[in-house]
Amino acid sequence: MARLIRAGVWLRDQEPPARKHRLYSPGATAALSAVQRLGEVPKHAVLIAVTASLGPMVAAFDKAWRAAAGGLLVGPGFADTRARRIHPFTLLKALDNQVPACLAAELGLNGPCRHFHDSNGLWPILAANINSVEPTGTAVLLVATDVRDADEAVTRRRYLAESRELPPQEGAVALLMKADPAADLPPLGKPDVSAFAAALDFARGLAPPSPNPC
Amino acid sequence: MTSDGLDLKISAGALVLPGGLTLDDLFHARSAVVGLDESFRVPIGAPVTKPLTALADAVGRPIPRGVLLAAEALAALPEKPKRRTGLVLGLPSLFSETEYVEHMLVHRHDVAAMERLHWFLGDHPLHLLQKRFGLTGPAARVDSACATGNDALIQAGIWLQQGLVDDVWVVAASAMLNPVAVALFDHLKALTERRDLEASCPFDARRRGFVMGEGAAALCLSRRPEARALGYLRGWGQSMSDTGFVDLPDDLRVVEGACRAALGGRDRVAYVSAHGTATQANDLMETRLHHRLFGKAAPSIPLSSIKSMIGHCLGAAALIEAWVCLAALHRQTAPPTINLRHPDPACDLDVVPNQARPIAGALALSNAFAFGGHNVSVLLERGEPWLD
Questions:
Q1: In this complex, is the C-beta atom of A112 within 8 Å of any C-beta atom belonging to chain B?
Q2: Are residues B329 and B196 part of one domain?
Q3: Which of B103, B275, B290, B374 is catalytic?
Q4: Do B205 and B121 belong together in one domain?
Q5: Where in the numbering of this chain does the Ketosynthase family 3 (KS3) domain appear (chain B) (predicted)?
Q6: A140 and A196 share a domain?
């Protein structure tokens, strides 16, 4: 049974840590803040990261194009003057896997990494991943982050008509877990996902409800 | 990590390669690298040229090209989904960001057109593919940049090992061959400066960076006893290098650890599929790594890079290479590293120069090393004979 050892949370209204590197996006910085609240993390921990879109790219391009002096928006001139207004690190900031990369670089993590885009139905998959680590006795660091770059939010509101309301909460959470043979609970072994599967099938109209799905 | 006695079968696969190449072409040293038009900051690349029709019925949606490529690969699979077949989608986020930016540049005057770009974001691509192909099991989208294909394959292996599902389809796609992405990669000095069509030349002394390609691969994995086994996923290893985003480590212990975990104690394989990007640093690192892994046997274990033929397909590269590894084991033939006219003496390995060559054995190691420090290796084993 995996035991939760420590939990760390960073929310938007808290002070972020000083960034060592300017390529980190707000999402990565938030994740780093949450993990730092855990204290020491084993270097060989299995890192399971869940991230939402970080997306500073659109805002970066929008600024560059606004600063450029007219001309075609796409085509032969694209790669010249205007492209040079895009900071080289824009590419790296836009990569979602920069969250695990940031954590590895800042904290010296060098264990396995599994990185997911946030999506519906992810929890059974995360449980299977945590379970797969259990026999090795290795610690698991589960990190989830969702913080939108302010410039990006403005740009998306302009072009995507996204809501002007900020999300109710943004932040990151980090959980440090470890297999605990002494826990007075049966080992999970293979996860029993039959109830989940039955519920899923029922919801999709594929099967009648189980008389005792739990 | 190994599969602990459970057979993780690979029952089918399909590729969408640039330049209309087929799997067979990769064993005949054919290249997909062509000249690009003047809207690109670099003059060469390896684009997919075939029409993408698998989602042609999804009218009215600006489907990202990466999703179209993924759908094309899934549509080419010769299997039908079983009940509760899972889906692992390997699709690095950046593809959609760059397409999104391109779309913005064209449509910035038209808010309505931009609003439709929600289809580019979040888990919309995942759910679109699930619905289109009738995949009713769990689904997830993974992202580890250029190692995404191997990580997607490993994720499928974990789901099967843990009993989450009996069948998983894995698909990885990359469609970053657009002016925005090319300009960004060029900013990072990752792309070759050369203009000739032989510029994708891993392990050659004239290598100057990678040539960007695009493509997709899809594989079916199963744990069912009755499933065909064209090959097996026998092991895997993952690690993170803590050296920063684009730097390669001098100390290879962490990289080596991922490979050794995949090898599971084996000291020899029939073939190694190199990450082989044709950057100065990567190819030197892989040479050192190969020597560390296999010691005195290293010069006799062939290692090649199909990126010499199809360019670097980024998020799709590793899954394409995994399927090519199985084909190599089935054919007992290593695909070549082409464009090797002036071998770099510092890369003193058997890199299967310029033409395919026989190999002997049942195991292949496929390596991928990505921006962000992801080191991901998989060990594949030959299965039953293929019906070519």
A1: yes
A2: no
A3: B275
A4: yes
A5: 1-382
A6: no
Kindly indicate whether the ipTM for this predicted assembly is greater than 0.90, answering yes or no: yes
Output phi, psi for B152, to 5 deg.
-65, -40
Domain range holding B326?
232-382
In a domain, B102, yes or no: yes
Q: Does A100 touch chain B (CB under 8 A)?
A: yes
Here the CATH number for the domain that contains residue A117 is 3.40.47.10
Q: Which residue of B161, B245, B254 is in closest CB contact with A101? A: B245
Both A25 and A74 in one domain: the answer is yes
Decide if B239 and A110 are in contact by the 8 Å CB cutoff: yes
Among B146, B201, B259, B325, the active-site one is B146
Q: Within chain A, what is the greatest distance between any pair of CA atoms?
A: 70
Question: Which of B37, B101, B250 is best to mutate for the A interface (most A CBs within 10 A)?
Answer: B101
Q: What is the CB-side half-sphere exposure of residue B157 using CA atoms within 13 A?
A: 27
- Cβ–Cβ gap B142/A190 under 8 Å: no
CB B211 within 8 A of CB B311: yes
Looking at the complex, does the CB of residue A134 fall below 8 Å from at least one CB of chain B? Answer: no
Q: Do A204 and B136 touch (CB under 8 A)?
A: yes
If asked whether residues A194 and A158 sit together in one domain, one would say no
**Which run of H or of E encompasses B182?**
helix B179-187
Domain end (from B222, B240, B271): B222
Q: What are phi and psi of A44, to 5 degrees?
A: -95, 10
Does residue B52 lie within any of the structural domains? Answer: yes
pTM metric for this prediction? 0.90
Same domain, B293 and B336: yes
* Cα gap B235→B325, rounded to integer Å: 14
pLDDT in tens, A130-160: 989 988 889 999 999 887 766 666 766 666 5
Binary contact (B187, A83; C-beta < 8 A): yes
Distance CA B110, CA A73 (A): 14
Mean pLDDT in order along chain B per 10 residues (388 residues): 73 98 98 90 92 78 83 97 95 65 59 58 82 95 94 97 95 87 79 92 96 97 96 97 75 94 97 96 96 96 98 97 98 98 97 98 97 94 86
- Provide the number of structural domains found in chain A: 2
CATH code (residue B203): 3.40.47.10
